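Subject: Re: docking follow-up (NAP)

Dear J.,

Thanks for your patience while I sorted out the input files. As discussed at Tuesday's group meeting, I've set up the holo structure prediction with NAP included as the bound ligand rather than trying to dock it afterwards. The sequence and the ligand SMILES I used are pasted below, so you can double-check that they match what you have on your end before we go further.
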Amino acid sequence: MTDRILRWGLLSTAQINRAVITPLRISPRNRLVGVASRNLAHAQAYAAERDIPRAFGSYEALLADPEIDVVYVSLPNSLHAEWTIKAVQAGKHVLCEKPLALTVEDVDAVLTAARRAGVIVAEAFMYRHHPQTLKVKELLDRGAIGRLRLARGAFTYNLDRPGDVRLAPALGGGSIWDVGCYPITFARAMIGAEPIEVFGWQVLGPTGVDEVFTGQMRFPGDVYAQFDCGFRATLRMVMEFIGDEGAISIGNAYKPGVPPDRVLLIRDDNTEIVAVPEQELYLGEVEDLADAILLGKPPRISLADSRATVATILALIQSAREGMAVRMREG
Ligand SMILES: NC(=O)c1ccc[n+]([C@@H]2O[C@H](COP(=O)([O-])OP(=O)(O)OC[C@H]3O[C@@H](n4cnc5c(N)ncnc54)[C@H](OP(=O)(O)O)[C@@H]3O)[C@@H](O)[C@H]2O)c1
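The structure tokens for the complex came back this morning:
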């Protein structure tokens, strides 16, 4: 055991920072010490409002602070890999918002840089660490629904903020990168394999990013996954797993704790509500990274996992563009 405390810096003043600020305050092994913005006055105001000790007027300045151990990269998607690599080269561990990168080559560059620097990099998919997700995996692994045949999931909402980074092609916008990644990663993690072949359809919006995406994935052993995501439908964050002896239905798969978050186990005529322990939604990703840094445990979301996520999304986008299935490997 170690009594070392990890000192964190936030790379940007993004909206999503609020998600990790609470966990960093409640976790005894972690402490929030700094925030950086492209604008010093903005960083100072942000820090003062949230009682963060240090404010930096550039991302470089935060990375140069030797008293910061871990950096949370909450920049727009197109900047994730670049700033993760810069942070790693400055000797920092990194928790990077999803998606870790927009190309497989960039994931590989992150991996090489992290190995060279001897630091940990993990992609921030909070739901993967939550007891609800771990419970669903346990049910599937112990055959609670028999043999898994199909995973179905969706993450949609109405995006009504003009100028949002999610609508900018140059910043890595688009619904599949923003929210499609949730059902895609959930299905892959529960099936425990990577797709052999994928098919996608997309509806592009006026800025050129996909505002609606629907896709299918074929896995080894005749297991399938279907998902939809988008910025043009009511809020849905569901997942469903169908086996030959039952089904699991998850009301809120990615933000457990936010209603309707019931997990149902359905077998024959019997529907059971599965008990799930409560946990602060974003605490798991912070503690998992601390375990990796302080205790040497492998992070739950490995860089190989992130690489496969990026490869799958790119294959789906290619399929939607070309109007035909994309084969990812033999099978
Ligand atoms: N895991 C989750 O639950 C979750 C939820 C929401 C978002 N996210 C992820 O978090 C990331 C940020 O999303 P967000 O909605 O929080 O974004 P946001 O509020 O728009 O913040 C992005 C920040 O990036 C900085 N930035 C640097 N270059 C920029 C540029 N060219 N254009 C705009 N901003 C720029 C800005 O900070 P400064 O001005 O301070 O430099 C800005 O505040 C995304 O990758 C998203 O996928 C994750």
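A couple of observations from a first look. The mean pLDDT is 97. The first strand starts at residue 6 and ends at 11.

Let me know if you'd like me to rerun anything.

Best regards,
T.
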